[in-house]
Amino acid sequence: MKRLRIEHATGFSYQGDVSASYNEARMLPGTTDSQFVLSSSLDIEPSTSVNTYVDYFGTRVSAFDVLSPHADLQITARSLVEVRPRPIEHSGISWDRLAVEASRSIETVEQLVQTNRTMPHPDVAEIARTIASQHDDPGRAAHDIVVAIGDAVEYMSGVTGVHSTAVEAWEARKGVCQDMAHIALGALRSVGIPARYVSGYLHPKPDATVGVAVTGESHAWVEWFAGEWQGFDPTNNIEIGDRHVLVGRGRDYNDVPPLRGVYAGPFKSQLFVRVTITREA
After folding, report:
1. In the 8-state DSSP scheme, what is residue 86?
2. How far is residue 177's CA from residue 13's CA, in Å, rounded to a whole number?
3. Beta carbons within 10 angstroms of residue 176's beta carbon
4. Domain encompassing residue 261
5. Crossing angle of the two packed helices 138-152 and 177-190, in degrees rounded to 10
């Protein structure tokens, strides 16, 4: 188990004063069966009141409006979280049983439907079908499918953008964690395995020195349902461990962006992001 301190600063700079902005932040982790939030806070500049709630998919949301003229908006989320590893456990469920179980819950039914971002390339769907046909256990098939996606796509920033689809990333065979998660989701859903997008953070150093702050970034991985929910990180081809801090879940990235907003004004905006992660124990 590790104790991780995360500071995530983000926001917008405008080319002049905007009269108002309306925003939602999904930047604070919640307590789950594998992580415990010791403390968390959200600081906003210009200062304003915040309405906090849990959204449809179980993610903590901080909604706020800034109704006075401002040229910059800065949000800083600070969290201290204890995290334990989440090793994969295969339940041995059959494909027929999975189909029955998946149809019984909105939570799983909704994660079977492809979105514009996850719709798989025909080659990806074929890879998933081939692997699935080799397994009686859909959980083991899911694991192998996600590993195959991670092996096939090279991590490279700047090739794709925040609005890129799984098909576009697959054709390039390059992308970032968001792209690999979308490709994996499309592959899993195409063979009847419910799968969901997970957003959070990953400490980049497996053997991090206690007390040393390092530059991090938002991260994404996937979870699939095969009797119970299991997770895997296709970008690094590793199980979800005590370096992963979960923030939100959804059908794809569009359900869990760290910051989303609109503003009133004629000016363009520029997003900035800075993430620092420190192992405390």
Report:
1. B
2. 26
3. 23
4. 2-84+257-279
5. 140
Q: Say yes or no: 78 and 104 in one domain.
A: no
CA nearest to 35, candidates 203, 171, 163, 254: 203
249 strand-pairing partners:
198
Query: Cβ-count burial of 158 within 10 angstroms (0-12 exposed, 13-18 middle, 19+ buried)?
Result: exposed
Per-residue pLDDT of the chain (281 residues; tens, 9 = 90+): 999 999 999 999 999 999 999 999 999 999 999 999 999 999 999 999 999 999 999 999 999 999 999 999 999 999 999 999 999 999 999 999 999 999 999 999 999 999 999 999 999 999 999 999 999 999 999 999 999 999 999 999 999 999 999 999 999 999 999 999 999 999 999 999 999 999 999 999 999 999 999 999 899 999 999 999 999 999 999 999 999 999 999 999 999 999 999 999 878 899 999 999 999 99
The single-letter DSSP state of residue 208 is P
Note whether 111 and 78 are same-domain residues.
no
Tokens 């092996």 sit at which residue? 151
Q: Per the structure, how many domains does the chain have?
A: 2
Q: Specify if 46 maps to a domain.
A: yes
Residue 280 one-letter amino acid: E
Whether 37 and 31 have beta carbons less than 8 Å apart is answered as: yes
Kindly list the distances between the CA atom of residue 152 and the CA atoms of 132, 155, 179, 224, in Å, as whole numbers in the listed order: 17, 10, 12, 19
On whether residue 274 sits in a domain, the answer given is: yes
For 128-151, the DSSP string reads HHHHHTT-SSHHHHHHHHHHHHHH
> Residue 191: what residue type?
V
CA-CA distance, 55 to 254, in Å (whole number)?
13
Q: Is the peptide bond before 204 cis (omega within 30 degrees of 0)?
A: no
CA-CA distance, 71 to 166, in Å (whole number)? 35
Give Rg (Cα) of the chain: 19
- Output the CA–CA distances (angstroms, integers) from residue 164 to 158, 179, 273, in the order listed: 11, 7, 19
